[in-house]
Amino acid sequence: MDASERHVPVMLERVVALLAPALAQPGAVLVDATLGLGGHSEAFLQQFPDIRLIGLDRDPAALRLAGERLAPYEDRTTFVKAVYDELPEVLEDLGVPAINGILFDLGVSSMQLDEADRGFAYAQDAPLDMRMDSTGPTTAADILNTYSSADLARILFQYGEEKFSRRIADRIVREREAEPFTNSARLSELVRDSIPQAARRTGGHPAKRTFQALRIEVNGELEVLRRALPNALRSLALHGRIVVMSYQSLEDRIAKQTLAAGTKTDVPDDLPVIPAGHEPYLQILTRGAERPTEEELAANPRAASVRVRAAERVRVKGMVVR
């Protein structure tokens, strides 16, 4: 199965519509900060024949498959193995002073979920890996087998919002003394047994939050996102646009707060007049976080948790946009 068959881009039409006004000019530069299998990028390259695409991904397998999918556009595409908080360095290396659009499609890609040996899915037994970049130094098994009970409880609570984090962490530490953790089925069973039966009746699979927390810790996802979004905003040209697609509340909170900060003036609130050049530099384009339609959910169940936020840069330093 090739990349185009295995990947259904989430909220494709809406994402294209949000970024389209920034890509209308000839030679516009679009960054797909989370290239994955290239589904969103393919749509942009088809619809905007004059844009240049820069695709980033930390996963070498994703870059290879996306490269195959987007081969018809190779004269307008550049692919870079990088984490998205490295955007300033990537743009400097490519000699690109500013970009017109950037898309963040966060979370785990379809390919990573579908490949059992990556260990992202709690519903099938696999090695406890969870690295988005398979050359990274730390796996989920490393964390489970070496972190203290307090540190395990901290990441389960902070990154998984798991109410029973201490109980699960203590159980992991006890169990690993008998045998180190290597596979996801054992962890999934442990989590289920650690959660009271009444609490298992709601909220989906009992291990979902634990697997999310481990994946975030393995890949440093939230720390990377906190650095990446301000970097992306600084890289936007005037009237450039950003779209952020989040799949869990922690990511969405960071996106919401970062974009909201750009809509505030940088002078004291009690000033009667905002001096020229100090107006907010961002305009929010979405009303809250947009969600998929019922039609999309029926066609693509993986879109169920997505939240989409977007903004446009309406000022650069020293310039007011009328």
UniProtKB/TrEMBL annotation:
Its EC number is 2.1.1.199. GO terms for biological process: rRNA base methylation. GO terms for molecular function: rRNA (cytosine-N4-)-methyltransferase activity. Keywords: Cytoplasm, Methyltransferase, rRNA processing, S-adenosyl-L-methionine, Transferase. S-adenosyl-L-methionine binds at G38, G39, H40, D57, Y84, D105, Q112. It is an enzyme of class 2 (transferase). Belongs to the methyltransferase superfamily. RsmH family. This is Ribosomal RNA small subunit methyltransferase H. It comes from Kribbella antibiotica. The lineage of its organism: Bacteria, Bacillati, Actinomycetota, Actinomycetes, Propionibacteriales. The gene is rsmH.
